[in-house]
Specification:
With 197 residues, the chain is of the alpha/beta class. The protein is built from five helices and eight strands; from the N terminus they run H-E-H-E-E-E-H-E-E-E-H-E-H.
Length: 197
């Protein structure tokens, strides 16, 4: 029974490590890939990136033909200048691992294609704990309403698009689940090791 504890703790350590490393791979642009956007999609890739949460360790897959992907500084992005690249890829199926927090600028190596919208800014955020607190009403009304009251997603500010409070994303749920599994694993491991004594 004494040999069970070291094996169990080795399994627990491996399980914990694999649970913490919950990264995602994103296909840039979805099924359309890295291509010249249509006339009405000039900000296609930046909008695509703004709808996702990227964390350190996540990766981006660029699928393209007769083009390249260049990581540049901010100036290179705004001027479609790939003469001083941070990284350059032209294999047609590039995977870039996100390894630092902050903004990352991607452009096509072809200045003409870049000016047509083959470029993207994305932000990598710190993978710290996610805290989401839904809005609360300080003093709920005493009156009950017989009609249907608008919900948060139905509220429209003057002249703007509908507003709603942002909730946690699915990748946040995966990370929270991973932390829960780790905590449970530690308690189970400690409990079993105490039973062996």
């Amino acid at each position: 029974m004494a040999s069970f504890s070291p094996i169990f703790f080795l399994f627990l350590a491996v399980f914990t490590f694999t649970s913490v490393v919950s990264t995602e791979e994103y296909q840039v642009g979805g099924v359309v890939g890295w291509r010249i956007p249509a006339t009405n999609e000039s900000e296609l890739y930046t909008v695509w990136a703004s709808r996702r949460r990227f964390h350190i360790g996540d990766s981006l897959r660029f699928a393209y033909k007769n083009d390249s992907v260049v990581v540049v500084e901010k100036w290179g992005y705004y001027h479609c200048d790939s003469s001083h690249p941070i990284a350059f890829y032209n294999d047609g199926n590039t995977v870039v691992t996100l390894d630092k927090v902050g903004k990352i600028y991607f452009i096509s190596g072809d200045a003409h294609r870049c000016k047509q919208g083959v470029n993207m800014i994305l932000e990598v955020i710190n993978p710290g704990p996610v805290r989401y607190f839904p809005p609360t009403i300080a003093n709920p009304p005493d009156v009950t309403y017989s009609g249907m009251a608008p919900g948060p997603s139905q509220f429209v500010s003057s002249g703007g698009p509908p507003e709603s409070s942002p909730g946690p994303s699915s990748s946040d749920a995966v990370r929270c689940f991973s932390v829960s599994v780790i905590v449970v694993g530690i308690f189970v491991g400690l409990g079993l090791s105490l039973l062996n004594f």
